[in-house]
């Protein structure tokens, strides 16, 4: 096979989901392609690379097997990833590249690194790049992103409060799983041998709601037709970034019909602000059958800033989500009205566009009860006319002028949320 660029498949998935097993299976079945492999491991010793060497024709001394250890390619090793791949492409010819990420890697930044290279704003060029001007993007094309999901551990992962450290960042397993599901082209539901048919159907139903675009395939011991994960041409950055179920639900809200196994989603909307105390209490006690919630909200007393909520499993992140159009100077507001005439229709005379839109995805959710609880956390008629400054507000504060705080928002919010007891 001869092409200008080498197509790449990236394998992501929680610890122990079966990434190495899938990779070994692929290397042993698709023998017509000359495949190079990059294996990333958090530890000093790259155990996964050793296992690839043990179970396939590729040896650890081989140029075809690159190990990036002691860190994660979605964060601190992003520059190293680009360098290692650029050097590999220069050193020899091969047809295809497969990258196995660590179990804590988020697929989005890895895809960004491969498609945008050092041009990402927050990624400093390496010495190698400064000297040579060569980076991986010149040689590679992201072809397919694959997430391997452990069917046996699926619900336990959402319910667990376990988290892992990725460098300095603490990552909650349930929220990592959601991120990996929401950003992929192909999803391998692995370890199906350990789970009964009904549980598999429940899991599939949830995955389809969280990620309507991906192709979902059941696997046992990582055995998958190589054509399903190699050279599929499925990756499209825009489509992948916008494919999460919650994004679609916000764009085209519909009360999803109760599926066979009770997985549903709905959008909560309100033109009244949340009472900071009551909403914080509600989030502290949020029902565990709500697997995912995401959207923006209006908190009484924060009339200049839209806040965002990003919750998956037990992790709840609060972060700035831009400003209200109503808080802009009149001329700037007019520009918005010209380009978005529908804004004017939904405009409140006193509060403009301020309001709340949240998507909730879960199993056996009682929509009416959840709506009632969320409504009860918004201000009453009497409170609307009262002193909003008197409410106790445990939500994190953000400086609206501080760009750095915005870009680093989730971590700050998560920490602050923990301090105020919004995350557990
Ligand atoms: N029963 C069963 N076991 C499996 C299956 N797939 C993988 N395993 C086992 O699960 C364990 C973890 O599999 P790996 O392939 O190492 O998982 P991984 O995602 O690469 O793990 P990390 O690299 O640690 O993140 C191994 O002991 C595999 O043999 C499967 O479908 N069924």
From TrEMBL:
UniProt keywords, alphabetically: Chaperone, Hydrolase, Nucleotide-binding
TM region positions: none
GO molecular function, one term: nucleotide binding
UniProt domain CobW C-terminal: residue ranges: 263-378
Region annotation (Disordered) ranges: 386-424
Catalytic activity, reaction form: GTP + H2O = GDP + phosphate + H(+)
Highest taxon listed in the record's lineage: Archaea
Low complexity composition-biased segments: 413-424
Biased composition annotated in UniProt, kind: Acidic residues: 399-412
PANTHER family: COBW DOMAIN-CONTAINING PROTEIN DDB_G0274527 (PTHR43603), ZINC-REGULATED GTPASE METALLOPROTEIN ACTIVATOR 1 (PTHR43603:SF1)
Family as reported in the entry's similarity comment: Belongs to the SIMIBI class G3E GTPase family. ZNG1 subfamily.
Protein name: GTP-binding protein
Top-level taxonomy: Archaea, Methanobacteriati, Methanobacteriota, Stenosarchaea group, Halobacteria
């Amino acid at each position: 096979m001869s092409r200008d660029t080498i197509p790449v498949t990236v394998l992501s998935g929680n610890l122990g989901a079966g990434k190495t097993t899938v990779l070994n299976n692929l290397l042993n079945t698709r023998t017509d392609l000359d495949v190079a492999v990059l294996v990333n491991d958090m530890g000093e010793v790259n155990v996964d690379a050793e296992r690839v060497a043990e179970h396939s024709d590729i040896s650890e001394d081989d140029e075809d097997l690159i190990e990036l250890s002691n860190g994660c390619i979605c964060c601190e090793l992003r520059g190293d990833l680009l360098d290692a791949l650029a050097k590999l492409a220069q050193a020899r010819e091969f047809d295809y590249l497969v990258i196995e990420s660590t179990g804590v890697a988020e697929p989005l930044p890895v895809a960004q690194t491969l498609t945008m290279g050092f041009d990402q704003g927050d990624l400093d060029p390496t010495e190698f790049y400064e000297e040579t001007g060569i980076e991986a993007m010149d040689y590679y094309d992201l072809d397919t992103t694959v997430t391997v999901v452990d069917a046996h551990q699926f619900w336990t992962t959402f319910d667990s409060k376990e988290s892992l450290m990725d460098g300095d960042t603490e990552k909650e397993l349930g929220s990592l799983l959601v991120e990996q599901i929401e950003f992929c082209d192909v999803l391998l539901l692995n370890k199906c041998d350990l789970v009964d048919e009904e549980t598999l159907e429940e899991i599939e139903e949830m995955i389809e709601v969280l990620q309507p675009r991906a192709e979902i395939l059941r696997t046992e011991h990582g055995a998958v037709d190589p054509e399903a994960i190699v050279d599929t041409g499925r990756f499209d950055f825009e489509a992948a970034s916008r494919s999460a179920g919650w994004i679609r639900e916000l764009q085209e809200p519909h009360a999803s019909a109760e599926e066979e196994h009770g997985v549903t989603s709905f959008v909560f909307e309100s033109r009244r602000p949340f009472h900071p105390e009551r909403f914080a209490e509600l989030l502290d006690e949020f029902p565990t059958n709500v697997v995912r919630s995401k959207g923006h909200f209006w908190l009484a007393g924060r009339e200049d800033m839209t806040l965002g909520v990003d919750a998956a499993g037990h992790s709840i992140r609060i972060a700035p989500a831009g400003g209200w159009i109503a808080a802009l100077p009149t001329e700037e507001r007019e520009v918005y009205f010209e380009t978005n005439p529908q804004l004017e229709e939904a405009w409140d005379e006193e509060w403009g566009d301020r309001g709340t839109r949240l998507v909730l995805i879960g199993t056996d959710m009682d929509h009416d009860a959840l709506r009632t609880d969320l409504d009860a956390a918004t201000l009453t008629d009497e409170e609307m006319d009262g002193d909003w400054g008197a409410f106790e507000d445990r939500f994190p504060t953000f400086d609206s002028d501080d760009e750095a705080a915005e870009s680093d928002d989730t971590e700050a919010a998560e920490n602050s949320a923990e301090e105020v007891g919004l995350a557990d």
